[in-house]
Amino acid sequence: MNATSKPSSSILHQPKAVWAVAFACVVAFMGIGLVDPILPAIAHDLQASAAQTELLFTSYLVITGVAMFFTSWLSSRIGAKKTLLIGLGLIVAFALFAGLSSDVESIIGFRAGWGLGNALFISTALATIVGAAAGGTSSAIILYEASLGLGLAIGPLAGGLLGSISWRGPFFGTATLMAIGFIAIVTLLKTPAVTPTPTRLSAPFRALARPGLGILAAAALFYNMSFFVMLAYTPFALVPLGLSDAITLGFIFFGWGLSVAVTSVWVAPFLTARMPRTRVLWCVLPLLALDLVALALLVDSAVGLIVSVIVGGLLLGILNTVLTESVMEATDLPRAVASSAYSGVRFLGGAIAPPAAALLAATISPAMPFWAGAITALIATAIVIIGRKHLRRADGATEGALEEAEAISLGDA
């Protein structure tokens, strides 16, 4: 049993500042799935190809991933609150600019700026919630992942409803909600009296040399490829089956995101209370691969794709929570450094998947992206299993003095 992962009954009894950050997290994660239902509409109205339209994900995720390596350096110098507010301000500005754009190239560029704001906000928000929430690390991470799940659920729904009016609507809606989040954090999140110790610019990169964090980051790289194959490519797989309007796609991916939220909050803690975190990963990652195989085999069935996507959301919710908990427990690094290193690698995996999926579909077959996603899920499984001896701390075990010294030496190299 992994006692450290058992959720506390105080998860809903949090300071107002934590709820303010959590609300902003929901809106930030809405930005990931927001464009999902309007991808076909943008492609049609702006005369863009599927590969070009998928770059709305890639530009956003590449900049998010790269920038996340440097967020801990910035937040340790100007403080978490200022970093969060700068991130939110950038999201408001670039979401507004994207909504005012008249060509797909401009939207791709503004989504990149949006990604910079997202990186500053998301990485710092995770460390802020973990540091300020009541109920311990596990409860804080469950709250964070619940925000992620709700954002992934509401994002496509809002994108679908607003996108049925105009593809510009979701961008303006996000700018408005993020402005509300900005005001909430200004008023409710207090600036700590103690200035944090500045971290070195290279700290997240050196952190990846620690075996536990490096292994989990590598697994997350391939896992996120599977994640974004499902999220970004499935709308295009549904178009030939007559499901191309924004509202329909919005409701489908609302169900997917709601599944992510449900298992993040209830199923993941249930499993990690009864078995080590790494064993949960060994069990659920292969199930994700099987679900992607089902998507590949059922690519000509609308019902089959919808059911498989919802089932995939259930599995992704478990994996998101367990991977994040594992990262936060795998080392004794500062939370912000561990979050920056892990999140940077993870989002780069997500950046690769959307254009690669569109290319595979165009050159081989519509089912090929799902087959590729199944393979990357199995690679993630293999990485966790092969590196299991370095993940004992993630399971709640205490490292021996020699192992800890070796890890520190590697991290400082």
Describe this protein's structure.
It comes from Glaciibacter psychrotolerans. Its main location: membrane. Residues 17-392 form the Major facilitator superfamily (MFS) profile domain. It holds the Pfam family MFS_1. It is a multi-pass membrane protein. This protein has 413 residues and is mainly α. The chain has a single domain, classed as MFS general substrate transporter like domains (Growth Hormone, Chain: A). It has helices spanning 16-33, 39-45, 50-78, 80-99, 104-132, 136-163, 169-188, 203-207, 211-238, 246-272, 277-297, 302-330, 335-363, 368-386, 401-412. The longest helix is centred in the N-terminal third of the chain and has 29 residues, at 50-78. The radius of gyration is 20 Å and the shape is globular. The relative contact order is 0.17.
Please describe the structure with a list of short key phrases separated by commas or semicolons.
single chain, 413 residues, mainly alpha, Growth Hormone, Chain: A, 15 helices, 0% strand, globular, disordered C terminus, transmembrane transporter activity, transmembrane helix, MFS, YfmO-like, Putative MFS family arabinose efflux permease
